[in-house]
Write a structure and sequence with these properties.
The N and C termini lie far apart (68 Å). By secondary structure, the protein is mainly beta. The protein has helices at 3-7, 13-20, 90-93, 126-135, and strands spanning 28-36, 44-53, 56-61, 74-77, 81-85, 115-119, 142-145, 148-152, 155-156, 181-185, 190-194, 199-204, 207-218, 221-226, 231-237, 240-243, 246-250. The mean pLDDT is 93.
Length: 251
């Protein structure tokens, strides 16, 4: 049995308990790690720390640990591990984004706290780290999504999010939902009727039943599955419904 196998049991279990019960917005600090930020300015750091509060990275670099007690931070001793982004911005890596502020998946202050923590020997670079996550998840020290543990010490974190079940969900009963009704764009071209049985029916330019299908509302997002087989999406913003360039209001 390798050191990698034996070291994982109970890895930072006290810190995990604190993170899971953290309702007061305490900062979380992973300390003394090798950090592959994938940011062109910051680069890779060794013996460094990464600090996040909730879903936001607020600092990265050496010597953050010195303020941990002052900030009442939850400290995770990450000695011997490498921290990489859990999401890789391939467009940025290929030079498709011109500004650092557009790099959406780097371990940079201001970005989302999505990070993967692995033993150094399993994370020589980001591709090998991600390959380990897929092929040997039992070796993952931590997988964090928007500040919340998904994997910890090689196992599912308690209370972790679960993926939706495969398959198309049943149509919801939306009786009484205030978003049921006929939505009309400002040019009176598009009329989209949302009915309480989870169906939509569009009139476009006076042409009735141009598109028909099913829909689901999740928060301020609406997903459409047309009877022709394609999927589309829209977003509610206040009293407006934004969908493929149209801005609609309830008629």
């Amino acid at each position: 049995m390798s050191a990698t196998d034996t070291d994982i049991a109970g890895w930072n279990s006290k810190a995990l308990d604190e993170i899971l019960s953290n309702d007061a917005g305490r900062p979380v600090l992973f300390t003394n790690a090798r950090i592959l930020t994938m940011d062109p300015l910051i680069g890779t750091m060794t013996g460094a720390d990464i600090l996040f509060v909730g879903s936001l990275i607020v600092a990265v670099g050496p010597s953050l640990f010195t303020a941990a007690e002052d900030d009442n931070a939850i400290v995770v001793d990450a000695t011997g591990t490498t921290v990489v982004p859990a999401v890789v911005d391939t467009v940025a890596l290929a030079g498709g984004r011109g500004e650092r502020s557009e790099y959406v998946a780097t371990l940079t202050p201001g970005n989302t706290s999505d990070l993967l923590v692995l033993p150094d020997e399993l994370a020589a670079d980001v591709p090998s780290a991600l390959a380990t996550l897929i092929s040997r998840p039992e070796q993952v020290r931590a997988l964090i999504a928007a500040g919340r543990p998904v994997l910890w010490a090689g196992a599912d974190a308690p209370g972790r999010a679960t993926a939706p079940e495969t398959g198309i969900p049943a149509s919801p009963d939306l009786t009484g939902n205030p978003r049921v009704g006929v939505w009309i764009d400002q040019d009176d071209f598009l009329h989209q009727e949302l009915t309480a049985d989870g169906r939509y029916d569009e009139t476009r330019g006076g042409r009735p039943h141009a598109y028909q299908g099913r829909y689901w509302i999740d928060g301020d997002r609406i997903d459409y599955l047309d009877d022709l087989g394609f999927w589309a999406v829209g977003h509610f913003r206040g009293d407006e419904l934004h969908h493929v360039g149209y801005i609609m209001h309830l008629g």
